[in-house]
Amino acid sequence: MAEYTCLVVEDSPMMRQLIVFALARLKNLRVVEADDGVDGLKKLASGRFDIVITDINMPIMDGLKLVKRIRSDAIHRDVPIVIITTEGAEEDRQRALQLGANVYITKPIQAPQVISKVKELLKIP
Prior knowledge:
Number of helices: 5
Strand order of the largest sheet: 2-1-3-4-5
Oligomer: single chain
Number of strands: 5
Strand content: 15-25%
Radius of gyration: 13 Å
Shape: globular
Distance between the termini: 16 Å
Structural class: alpha/beta
């Protein structure tokens, strides 16, 4: 039975599938998927999440706006956020972290790195 719930917000179905596949190695983690920031906010409004993983470049609402909205939300403001993006510039990283992201990972991702960060943020041994 899942003890933790993760929201993965990624517009690329293939990338989302890669992230979900990597997270499937964590037996006590249930994953919910969202197509973009707006879909992510809808899913956040309908449940409790222990961690959010989001891309930056997405249609309708990008990941940085999503981070900003989550940090200003009374219910989810303390939820750890992992950014997974192609934006590798230091200024992009700094902006994401200043908005409230906890971890910033650039693509291509390595499954062990994603799993390690999620375990670290959720304090899963």
